[in-house]
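User: Need the bound-state model for phenylalanine:
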Amino acid sequence: MKDANSSRSAHHHGSRDAFGSSFGVLVALAGSAVGLGNLWRFPYLVGENGGAAFIIIYLAFVILIGIPMLMSEFIIGRRSQANARGAFNKLAPGSRWGIAGILAVICCILILSFYSVVGGWGIEYLFKAFRFDFTRGGDSAALSSIFSDFAASSWQPLVCHTLFLLLSGLIVILGVKNGIEKFSKVMMPLLFLIIIGIAVRSLTLPGAGAGIDYLFRPDWSEVTANTFLAALGQAFFSLSLGSGMAITYGSYVSRKENIVSISSQTALADTLFALIAGCAIMPAVFAYGISPGEGPGLVFITLPHIFSQLPLGGVIAILFFVALLLAALTSSISLLEVIVAFCIEEFHIKRRTAVVLSLSILWILGCLCSLSQGMLSGWKIFDKTIFDLFDFVSANVLMLIGGLLVVLFVGWKLGRQVIHDELTNSGALRIPVWLLDTITFLVRYLAPAAIITIAVFQWI
Ligand code: PHE
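Assistant: Bound-state model below.
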């Protein structure tokens, strides 16, 4: 193991890829965080879990657990300048902490498998939007069957899924600075503009008020133990926590960047985007008298109905699916980068080889996920289709375990001194001591306690 560590820097001639600017770091991180989790998962979870009450619990988790955990992952990545597994091995040589990194890589593989399927649906829907399929005046039964016909057919979703993976691969092959950073710098601002535009359209519909009420007026009677698990799972998923993303991206960040502010800005951008996406979707859902608790089909089944009736619906549909695709891509490249960085450094292979290797595995797993919506829907493990199983195991199991290990590692193994040192860049940044102490407390006690409590509730 020591041998591998010492040969690593020689192997890479000490020239690791890195982000070129602070803005680049922020857009790349926000790009990872803002994704299908915000546009597809958040709205339907809000719908299923009773609206504003869920949002408030979610916000509390983001602030109390999400941000400190993001900082913790950052600390691991920046301090070690290595991939998710290598990072643990470098900071705790000879220990078993590397397993935490391997779990993170597995988590990313599972997420990207179904993520690329949903991303593929986005590509298909974008085509449909360009053909004005949603607004051509088909009856509502025809609109309803668009999704089920498409998702259940075999080859079409597979083609789109393949296309989506290839697009992600193309960006990641270009590297961190020339691929990921460049892409995010252009696409993230565009993405925010589009979603704000759609929210304005939606909020100005007659009858939009009911949607706003639903989003912002809490109904505590709907809250159960499950609401907390769903909210925590969503906070993890949406902030890309416990997946090694911030370890990997953090390893490309220079020692001059301010971890406290990058982490807070990332969480802020992600949360704002989720809320704006909520404002884009819920008012329209209510204005057209559709039930918000539609589940995972909300974006793909319900929205087309709305586009079909909405003034300018055809254009809005195009914009919406462009946004969905961009959001999905900036996240999928981060998932892929975790896997690719791991392969490059742990197997000592070239970036290009690593991308091809990862894509091959992801393609096969993704095909299984895709087919489990149709042909293979009878294949059930623990009563879940492969698709649902991957989603559940990654967001509600692996990310929680990964995140727990991260805060335990930073809070107890690295310890208070290292946290203070990293957050202040060895004293160069003026960060109030009470803030450092609060963060340390959250990392050491609150985050682990909350995760364990919620996991125990869920799993018994
Ligand atoms: N945060 C992304 C989203 O909200 C998903 C993701 C999870 C990306 C883990 C990277 C790592 O869609």
